[in-house]
Amino acid sequence: MTSSLASLARAAARAVSYVTLALAAAGLAGCGGGGTQFASGGIVGTGDARVLSSGIITATAPGAIVVNGQTVSIAGATVSINGVAASAADLRIGMVVAVDGRVNPDGSAVATSVAYRAEVAGVVDGVDVAASAFTLLGQRVRTDRLTVFEGGTLASMLGQRVEVSGLRAGPTDVFATWIQVSAEPPPAVVPIEVVGTVAALDATVKRFSVGSQLVDYASLAATAVPAGFANGSKVRVSGTVPVAGGIVTATAIALVAPPLPGQNAQRVELDGFVTDFAGLASFRVNDQPVDARSATFENGSAASLGNGARVEVEGRLDNGVVIASKVEFEHAATVDLDGNVQSVNVPGATFVVGGETIAVVATTQFEDRTASPDPSFALAKLAVGDRVAVKARAGPTGWIALRVERLALDAPPPGNATVKVEGVISAFASVADFTVAGQRVNASGASFENGRAADLAVGVRVEIEGSLSGGVLVAAKVDVSVPDPSEGAQSVKVSGPIGAFVSKASFLVAGQPVDASFATFENGTASDLANGRTVEATGTVSGGVLRATRVTFASLGGGTQLQVEGPIESFASPASFRVSGQLINATGAKYKNGTVADLAVGREVEVKGALTGGVLMATHVEFKDAPEAEEIEVKGTVSSFVSVSNFVVAGRKVDASSAEFDDGDASGLANGTSVEVKGMLVGTTLKATKVKFR
Predict the structure, then answer these.
(1) Residue 235 and residue 271 in contact, taking contact as beta carbons nearer than 8 Å
(2) What is the mean pLDDT of residues 562-586?
(3) With 90 as the cut, is the pLDDT of residue 424 above it?
(4) Which residues contact 219 (CB under 8 A, 6 or more apart)?
(5) Would you give the distance in Å from CA 156 to the centre of its chain?
(6) What are phi and psi of 485, to 5 degrees?
(7) Comparing C-alpha atoms, which of 168, 170, 304 is closest to residue 573?
């Protein structure tokens, strides 16, 4: 579900601590001893073995950190911050770090080194509160409710100097996990650091671009330019830029190396986004090469891999490549609960809010937001009656806390714990019994928006708000995305590659369980059912299972007409993206409810075209989630200026051809001009109604 960051921005003075249950319960000062207990997912040693990990620090305690769910002693480790020797006290929750260490025979993990390096540091030149994002140095930085802010807020950081740690999801796309906002006004010339891919290299004048940021390296000696530096190289640039923006003067350029040091290790863990995807045998996570041909997959399949997918990878390091044994997709459903703690079970690692039992794991984050915050707040310090806001995900046996915030007791009374769930209905028995994102829902007493109770059916996207009772979400409000009436409320159709095939009575299509025992088959027979075959199954849902009446195979031959529906799972370009596991080329397609520029991971689309060589050559692409026009505001400097109807502010494409101008006119628009833009968001373009020069 989506959440606004603006109401959750944190000040630096606020105490933040995300201490794990294992550390808090045991009262450990370090983790080097054999008594250390590992939470679910931790390493169990079978002998002294090297372990490498790249991921987010989610918990700290004296002498220890938690990365990728594992508690690691850092009491004797060397620590570096942005290439400079530092102390363990300089590490912060939310930083992405690379850990090199070992697993002892007793199962305890000990780091020999911990390295942190910022992904980008500079002055913010654009803020888009509606998208919980901002821009600087040609990079668009996304945030969410788990992003840790120190020293400022998203809404107020325009023109401020920031340092960002995060996970790179694309050449100019950073998902921030930790942001430090400087309290001091930026100097006239600002030190910067940025990671990106070299483009538009001109070796004669010694300039190149990283994203939309121009870099001049003429002042560097030839020996300071790394060997292999060329278009397409991934580099880390250090330098300076005028506070008002402009060309970066490079003081150092280094090729980006994989985060895991060395060539070999018995145990490796990575957390990040897939980039540079060329197939199962070749992609990167956190710039680390990965080969997943022998991996097992959780919460998805091999077909779901692609640029932009968020994954956790486990395996071994062999000649600098991670040979994955497991790839887990991170897209579990989440809920928000707001209520008073009814009971706490420290030994059992659980607490209860609104009658719901919430489990705490190694990666659970804790923050005390009361008037006198406790810097060591953790489960052991949670008390009955405490007011908490909890973000949780659905686990195999119940809710698992991602984040727990203790609020002031004089905060507005929560009433029943409020829960919001957003997703597609996966099983439907009646308005009083259906499932969304793994959560059973009773909407018999709910009010409906943008639809009616009669519109509820498998495949319909809904946003539900209510309270939990005995594990069932009792809905107070249901916001409905009504399906195409031509599909019929009782008839359900799913398309995509077959997964988890057991028999014709038990397999998955687009995550939907299917029973085709009594189906008729087109373009094939029941014996053709197998994992990876792309099918369209039509029928009715009973007990969460699609009882197929017809199954149509997408022929493996060229020229077969095919239609797929669902969210874009991975996106490299209009010529290469995936929906329901199907690779698509939409460069020649006609678009409805959007344009080719609107293609992005997560957008719900229906794609039609011919299947040629395993690729769906799209003739039509329809955006099924095209939102109604939404009024938003962005602030920042103009970039990528083409005309009054085509320029960018804070990463948003803007059309100001019909706008009213304050303190100037359209002729004043140019790259580097500071503006505030208000208007309606139509697709991905902000149709400006007002532009104010700043």
Answers:
(1) no
(2) 81
(3) no
(4) 249, 250, 251
(5) 23
(6) -60, -25
(7) 170
For the chain, how many residues are written? 694
With tokens 């077969």, the residue in question is 560
d(CA 424, CA 445): 20
Least confident of 479-483, 585-589, 634-638: 479-483
Which residues have C-beta within 8 Å of that of residue 105, sequence separation ≥ 6? 45, 46, 47, 48
Does this model's pTM top 0.70? My answer is no
Residue type, 644: V
Would you state the CATH architecture of domain 492-553? Beta Barrel (2.40)
Please give the backbone phi and psi of residue 601, each rounded to the nearest 5 degrees, phi first.
-55, 130
Looking at this protein, which amino acid is placed at residue 280? L
Residue 206: exposure state from Cβ atoms within 10 A (0-12, 13-18, ≥19): middle
3-state SS, residue 40: coil
Alpha carbons 405 and 148: distance in angstroms, whole number: 13
pLDDT, residue 23, reads: 31
Give the count of beta carbons closer than 10 Å to the beta carbon of residue 203: 11
Per DSSP, 220 falls in state S
| C-alpha span between 274 and 331 (Å, rounded) | 14
User: CA-CA distance, 193 to 212, in Å (whole number)?
Assistant: 15
Q: Which fold has domain 630-693?
A: OB fold (Dihydrolipoamide Acetyltransferase, E2P) (2.40.50)
Q: Are 188 and 292 in contact (CB under 8 A)?
A: no
Which region among 63-77, 87-101, 196-210, 435-449 has the lowest average model confidence (pLDDT)? 435-449
Which of 499, 456, 497, 498 lies closest to 479, judged by CA? 456
Residue 242 C-beta-side C-alpha neighbours within 13 Å: 6
> For residue 657, which of 630, 628, 672, 677 has the smallest C-alpha distance?
677
Are domains 492-553 and 560-623 of this chain identical in fold?
yes
Where are the chain's structural domains?
120-255, 265-329, 418-487, 492-553, 560-623, 630-693
Pairing of strands 133-136, 126-128: antiparallel
Kindly list the distances between the CA atom of residue 540 and the CA atoms of 341, 456, 505, 518, 675, in Å, as whole numbers in the listed order: 41, 13, 14, 12, 53
Mean of the per-residue pLDDT values for the chain?
Answer: 80
8 — pLDDT class (breaks 50, 70, 90): very low
The CATH architecture one would assign to domain 560-623 is Beta Barrel (2.40)
- Class for domain 265-329, per CATH? mainly beta
Q: How many whole angstroms separate alpha carbon 636 and alpha carbon 283?
A: 34
Residue whose pair of structure tokens reads 């044994």 in the numeric block: 325
Pairwise CA distance, residues 429 & 438, whole Å: 14
Domain 418-487, CATH:
2.40.50.140
Supply 144's token pair.
């969410």
200, amino acid identity: A
